[in-house]
Amino acid sequence: MDTKILVQEKYGAAARHVRQTNSGACCNPVFTCCDPVTKDLYGEAEKSGLPEGAMLASLGCGNPTALIQLKPGETALDLSSGGGIDVLLSARRVGPAGKAYGLDMTDDMLALARENQRKADIENVEFLKGEIEKIPLPDNAVDVVISNCVINLSADKDRVLREAYRVLKAGGRFAVSDVVARGEVPEPVRRSMALWVGCIAGALEEKEEMARLAQAGFTAISLEPTRVYNIEDARQLLESAGVDVDAIAPLAGDKLMSAFIRATKPGRACRGSSCCSN
């Protein structure tokens, strides 16, 4: 099955599970990317005032809104925004004069995100349907691009990075959480399609990740590890995908980590209408 279709079906099932049962997406038996990857990512102050459905559908590996200082009046874009938690948090920070976009290709996730927006009563948010490889926004449209454990799911990561660069304004910031490999990930792990949705098999090696960002045009690139997955972490994830754990876990353990990845689109950041046409 095509990777994009597989991801869409799995995340759609996760969104339907949350809406129908009011329980976490990781409780959905068809979904493999759960604890320890997704646990303890948001503080109580951040969760306060947000709909429970936004937290229940959170399937990321980090907290990208903690990566960067969002300023009042800025425009932020969340790639593959899921249930909308990072969009809603961004909207709070940019304030009424700013805007937060969420982009997702899955109708069920978009429906859940819009429902969460209504419940949160946050107006400066817009959820768009589309793919992260072809962002439906014009050039130089946003100040900040964030995402939460989704770029590694794309089969065309270079195109995703080029698109992020395109929609950012000069001086705009790229700040994402993602799963990154420490050294080479064994081929048996990469061959498991189930692990693409489990946030592992598509992970780039950390030096390659930074090199691809540079190739897309970004500067001031940095990568900060936030959580390294040990053998027992790998065991949980691999068992849920039906893989021979004893054979694979020693190969995967300590080779994968969540990381904060930051970069900047070069140029002078705009402040007001005098320096930018978009």
What can you tell me about this protein's structure?
- The protein is of the alpha/beta class.
- The protein has one domain (3-264): Rossmann fold (3-Layer(aba) Sandwich).
- The chain has eleven helices and eight strands.
- Strands 1, 2, 3, 4, 5, 6, 7 and 8 form an eight-stranded mixed beta sheet that branches.
- α1 crosses α5 (107-120) and α10 crosses α11.
Short descriptors:
Rossmann fold; 11 helices; 278 residues; alpha/beta; single chain; 8-stranded mixed sheet; globular
Briefly summarize what is shown.
The protein has 278 residues and is an alpha/beta fold.
Topology as a string of helices (H) and strands (E): HHHEHEHEEHEHHEHEHHE
Global Rg: 18 Å
Portion in beta strands? 15-25%
Helix content: 25-40%
Q: Give the C-level CATH assignment.
A: Alpha Beta
Low-confidence runs of at least 5 consecutive residues:
25-38, 272-278
Considering the protein shown, what is the CATH homologous superfamily?
Vaccinia Virus protein VP39
Q: What is the count of distinct domains?
A: 1
Number of helices: 11
Instruction: Supply the helix-strand structural class.
Output: alpha/beta
| Major pleated sheet | 8 strands, mixed
